[in-house]
Write a structure and sequence with these properties.
Bound molecules: adenosine-5'-triphosphate, magnesium ion
Distance between the termini: 33 Å
Number of domains: 1
Number of helices: 9
Helix content: 25-40%
Largest sheet: 9 strands, mixed
Strand order of the largest sheet: 5-4-1-8-9-10-11-12-13
Order of helices and strands: EEEHEHEEEHEHEEHHEEEHHH
CATH architecture: 3-Layer(aba) Sandwich
């Protein structure tokens, strides 16, 4: 599998809160533990690798400590990282400060990669796409997918399925993809609001034909997910037994879909699997992964 997109480092600082700062009315957290996880497109790669896929991740990071940390984490997860270093940017970091079991603050660092770096990345892509079974483009809106229209066309020319997790209000750039997976908010931003299920389905059908994508899968948080294809509509209801942390569920969805499709599962079967995987991952802390043992465990 080839995963391309915006990578980030999800960093968690845990600590004790025992007093209020004398400088401002805010708690002071004495940090005693740090946890780093690959985020964004790197979390998609990690989810696919956890399911047993051989994954190459193509992306851009800064020449800094978080960029090196990401490379190290990806190596531990046996993901082949093709990271381009851009001296002009900071690696995207989402730093959460957690005290007394709750998130007190999130601090984001991010910058858009430079044009030259993105061009070299595109020529790298052209080589890598020929060697994979499936392509996932994970757009987190940080500018790493400036050439996405070209990337989709190249994948299609090589007859590879190309799955896109979209962002923003311009979906025309995803035209021609095999499958796109907007969440509710992303779908609403391009298709407008709906009053009932019928209006929702009508606008989904319209959007699918307008973009000329084979399939549109709207992930709908606690409502599950709905697939639209030329053949019709399939709804999978949410399966979570307990919900602990929904962040990263979308990454698990697209990774599971891609692994299943590359393995020869039908689109409908892949959606059922992805929905099941999402139901498991929302029961875990932070951005997490699902393993095949969990996905295929007998349910009581
Ligand atoms: N609160 C929830 N209860 C049950 N299942 C959930 C819940 N939130 C998410 N899921 C499952 O995860 C899937 C993807 O979630 P969602 O639609 O929120 O994606 P997302 O917004 O892209 O997630 P993220 O951006 O945090 O990765 C849903 O289709 C559903 O199967
Ligand atoms: Mg998402």
């Amino acid at each position: 599998m080839l995963v391309v997109g915006d990578v980030m480092l999800d960093r968690y600082w845990f600590g004790e809160v025992s007093r209020i700062s004398p400088e401002a009315p805010v708690p002071v957290v004495k940090v005693d533990r740090n946890e780093d996880r690959p985020g964004g497109a790197a979390n998609v790669a990690r989810n696919a690798a956890a399911l047993g896929a051989r994954v190459t991740l193509l992306s851009v990071v800064g020449q800094d400590e978080p960029g090196r940390r990401l490379r190290e984490l990806l190596r531990e997860e046996k993901i082949a990282a093709r990271l381009h270093y851009d001296r002009t940017i900071d690696t995207t970091v989402k730093l959460r400060v957690i005290g007394r079991q709750q998130q007190l603050l999130r601090i984001d660092f991010e910058t858009t990669p430079s044009h030259e770096i993105l061009r070299t990345k595109l020529s790298d892509y052209a080589r890598l796409v020929a060697a994979c079974d499936v392509v996932v483009l994970s757009d987190y809106g940080k500018g790493g997918l400036a050439h996405i229209t070209r990337m989709i066309a190249l994948a299609r020319r090589h007859k590879k399925p190309v799955l896109v997790d979209p962002k923003g209000d311009d979906f025309v750039r995803y035209a021609g993809a095999t499958l796109i997976t907007p969440n509710r908010a992303e779908f609403r931003a391009v298709a407008g609001k709906w009053k009932n299920e019928r209006e929702f389905s009508d606008s989904a059908r319209r959007l699918r034909s307008k973009l000329k994508v084979d399939a549109l899968l709207v992930t709908r948080s606690e409502e599950g997910m709905t697939l639209f294809t030329r053949g019709g509509r399939l709804h999978a209801s949410a399966q979570a037994r307990e919900v602990f942390d929904v962040s990263g569920a979308g990454d698990t969805v697209i990774a599971t879909l891609a692994v299943a499709l590359a393995g020869g599962t039908t689109l409908e079967g892949a959606v059922e699997l992805a929905n099941h995987a999402a139901g498991i991952v929302v029961g875990k802390f932070g951005t997490a992964v699902v393993r095949p043992e969990e996905l295929f465990a007998k349910q009581d």
